[in-house]
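DM between two lab members

TW: hey, do you still have the 1,3-beta-glucanosyltransferase entry open?
JB: yeah, one sec
JB: this one, 466 aa:
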Amino acid sequence: MISLFARAFLVLNVAIFAVAALPTISVKGAKFFAGGKQFFVQGVAYQGSPSDPLVDSTQCNADAALMKTLGTNSIRVYHVNPYVDHSACMKIFDDAGIYIWLDLDTFNTTIVQTAPAWSEEQFIAFTMVMDAFQSFDNLGGFWIGNEVISSASGSPAAPYVKAAVADMKAYLAKKNYRDIPIGYSAADIAELRPNLQNYLACGTDYSQSIDFFGLNSYEWCGDATYQTSGYNNLQAMSEGYSIPIFFSETGCNVGGARTFADQAAIFGSNMIDTWSGSIIYEWVQETNDYGLVTYPNGALVGIPTKIQPDFDNLAGQWASLAPSGVAETAYQPSFSAPACPAPTAGGWLVDGNVALPTLGVEIVAAAAASVKPTSYVLVAPSTLSSAVSSAAPNTATEASGSKTTGTLESTATKGVGSSTSSSSGSSTSGSASATSSASAAADALNSLSRGSAFAGLIFILGVMIL
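TW: and the structure you got?
JB:
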């Protein structure tokens, strides 16, 4: 029997070495809050590994340490493998004060504007990612899609994006997960402003609307100003927006050192009351020259080395900008949801009052009730039903996608990391009235996960012995 002194010593050691987790991020009105204080995103896009950058704890540790010196409090991750354990990397970033903003889709499950669909196969794959990450307090939020729509003619895909939001919110609630924000990251397309951001947030049924909106904007280039960059127009279109909005990618590169002068506008008096921060594209250097660090010999792993003066330029901007915002208790939201935009000939083509192509409560309930393998259970993707094969590791890389500046296509481009509807993998076949393949998937997942009970018993016995 353990002595009273030994018990006290054990408790003391646990207290000494335990590190308090970051407070979870929540949405109230048009702002983010964490621990009662307004939260502003100061992030970098982080996707060195095409399939999953949150697996290698040695790499995460090296990157997180340098990110702290940059002033980063967030990273955006585009693709992960839900079958593996992410706890080590998530703990490393939590200890560094860094939140993760994670895409739910994969190369094979993204909604594609040319053949829009929201199927059971896609839904099951999304739930696998949600299941694997929902327990981490430093998960800032999920992205339901990234640059799915790139033109007004592609706007008929928007209801499928919103249907995915509705079904994933229903799944989250059915599983009794915490209220994790779910948002969308949009390409900065002039002909879609502000209809897309308004459509995704419109209506009185918040269970069908996004919780935050991200904009991938590369308008502020070189010696631009608040006026010449078009940021003044972005601000005008977003004033009174009822949910948080921030730059989910930014950091135009037209050659030479980047000064990141736009950060002073985003975190300054011009935009701070409306916008909730920015994510700089990107952490590791690739062929597009958007990186803040390099790894040895041009690899996508290794000890990170600062790219100068870009790294210090960004660090200096963030160090000089310290928005305090408002306390959660003092903030009373005053904006109502935007009106759903009306369709126009040759422009926005979606009637916001039309019912969404959701999968339905029965399918969501069945998925929530099924026992699926967690990130701690070793599961061979080849043994799963084909209905969830799209969630297996995918090492494909993406082609470069051009960015918009003002109303014209910019010469600034970026490469792998950001999944665009025009350059990433093909869509998963199916439609809103999908087949019953998810039922077969649930059966397969149930049978595969039964073996985990024995592992759990061994773990409990081990704890009792110790």
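TW: got it. The chain has twelve helices and 15 strands. The mean pLDDT is 81.
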